[in-house]
Amino acid sequence: MSWKSDSCATCAMRDMCSIASTSRRWHTYATRALYENIQLDGADSATQKKRYKIAFGSRLVVLRRTLRANPRLAAMVRTLKVPMAPEGHSLDDYHNLVATLVMACPNLERFLGLNPRHDHSFSKLFHALSTRQHLKQMDWILEPPGHPQHHQRPSSRPGSSSGRAGVLNKSRWNSTPSPQGVEFQDSTAFLDLHVNWTTLTTLSIHTLPRATQLPNGLIMRALRRLPALQHLYLSRLSHATFDDRSLCSLPPLQTLSLSHVPGVTSAGLSVLATRPASQDMTKLTLRHVNLDSLPALARIFSNLTRLHTFSLVQTSCPTLPEDTMIWLMPYLASPSLRRLHWDVTTPSLVADPADQILARSITTGGFPSLRTLRIPNDPEGIFQSLCRPMERVEIVTDRFLRPGRNHFDLSSSGSDGSRSVNGVDRPQSSPRTPTTPTTPSTPTTAAFGESSDLREARLAAQARLEEARQAPRFLIRVVNEDGVLAEEFGVAGFLGTVDSPIRYMLLPDTGARDDKGGLVDVGDVMGDCGEDLSNRDGCCGRWNMTTSGYVDRIEKEKWWHTERGRWRGVELA
After folding, report:
1. b/e string for 217-246 if b means 16 or more Cβ within 10 A?
2. SS3 435
């Protein structure tokens, strides 16, 4: 479903059902399209709940009954997106219902829409996911242990439900966790959830503030149980949980994203770049880690020869060691890098030395494959002048709209499915103009750390562009028949390099927000993704209603449906 579409998943499923009933030839393809990627959005209709006498989850119950009755349809399901947890009902009951639906999909690869938090106690939903041997993606939100008594958990290991092994597995979930951290029994049970995921390719782990005291080496032991892992996203892990030693022990990855991991330093990143196991890495994202060394950044660029996307977000630029001189340029060079996101959030009126070194490296051919450059904090416009000239940088709504207001706040450890609305109104200002902490133009502190506001960056870039137009590149003089100057004017004032292949891009990634720097993070993925109707209008199926203005009852019942939000899947950066 397109992000700009007026339709929704309910309308698409309705159309697929109509296509399936058209002919036998189309029935096969429409059925596969309908069941291969199931997307259930929004609330259940009142008519359906009344018909089946079910308080919540009527669509899940009907779908579960269909899949259990038809194994061929159940085997088609690869992606299952369930609605948000309904308000006013028990969250555990809803999770248990979803777990039964997961168990009805033997070839499930992706589970979306519901983001339960794991507190190291037994959960039927996590147990159901642990039994899906074809699962390819898993997102963990780890909470501190909060339940003194845990229910008994059936083991995920085949054949271990009886005998001594079964007794041991039950004891793991009957232990009382320590308030300071996770007990050994609970960590062992957490590792057992990863045993069957031999085809898992994408893993994200985010710990909540009071859940950072995980046993040392727990993350690495979990990764060793995932032989097919290719994309890893780690957020808010403490020093004891993940450090340089853990970083240098990672398996071969294609994508690595580290966000607020204080145990990682420049030394560890340098070693990571020189390891043979890291040579296949194509995407690296570093947000608020201790990358304070410019030589370490140079090693990352020079050793990761297949890297095509690099993102760096932190409060200060990397620096050179004292008494170090750069004799040759380019100092920073990557023959494969195509996309660079460089966000230094500390306000400044002039370009930082690291900014100048990066700009000179680009000018001297250090990044021949670079095509997209996103640098929100560019006070002197040195990066904007290296890119292809643009007619306009700002978008139409920049001078009227304010940053987004629908965000799932994971900074607190409330109950599952809790959502908070964050919105900050700012006046137009330069992104790197020094301000006091009480000024509205201070950079926004998002759920996971500081990021620059792309809206303010676009306004600042537009101001630089308009200023450059006041200094024309060519001067035209019009002389009359008598040789007297009749008119004189300048043209072609612009900012940029005409023959540059680099695009100066200050728009956010798909699913990200301007006030969070334009990069997708865990909060965007775990949010409502457009399904919540508290701040927006949903789809009722009216987008294809008759244009005559008159709608009879039969047409209304045929096309209209319960208002539901337009959920759009978001991929982590």
Report:
1. bbbbebbebbeebbbbbbbbbbeebbbbeb
2. coil
Strands 485-491 and 474-479 turn out to be antiparallel
Q: What is the residue extent of each domain of the chain?
A: 243-368, 371-536
Packing angle between helix 9-20 and helix 24-36, nearest 10 degrees? 150
pLDDT at position 440, please?
33
The amino acid that residue 255 corresponds to is T
Q: Please provide the distance, in angstroms rounded to a whole number, between the alpha carbons at the two ends of the chain.
A: 20
Q: In the chain, which residues have pLDDT < 50? A: 147-180, 404-409, 411-449
Sign of CA dihedral 216, 220, 225, 226: positive
Mean pLDDT across the chain: 81
**pLDDT given at position 48:** 85
Going from the C-alpha of 55 to that of each of 52, 89, 125, the distances in angstroms are 9, 9, 20
CB atoms within 10 A of CB 142: 23
Helical pair 294-303 and 266-274, crossing angle rounded to 10 deg: 20
46: buried, middle or exposed (CB in 10 Å: 19+, 13-18, 0-12)?
A: exposed
Query: What are the CA-CA distances from residue 257 to residues 235, 309, 310, 504 (Å)?
Result: 8, 11, 10, 23
Count other Cβ atoms within 10 Å, centred on residue 391. Answer: 6
Question: % helix / strand / coil in the chain, to the nearest 5?
Answer: 30, 15, 55
pLDDT for position 565: 85
**Residue environment code for 73-105, b if the CB has 16+ CB neighbours within 10 A, otherwise e:** bbebbbbbbbbbbbeeeeeeebbebbbbbbbbb
User: Directed axis angle between helix 163-174 and helix 184-192, to 10°?
Assistant: 120
Second-level CATH architecture of 243-368 = Alpha-Beta Horseshoe (3.80)
Distance of CA 253 to the CA centre of its chain: 18
pTM for this structure?
0.81
pLDDT at 543: 62
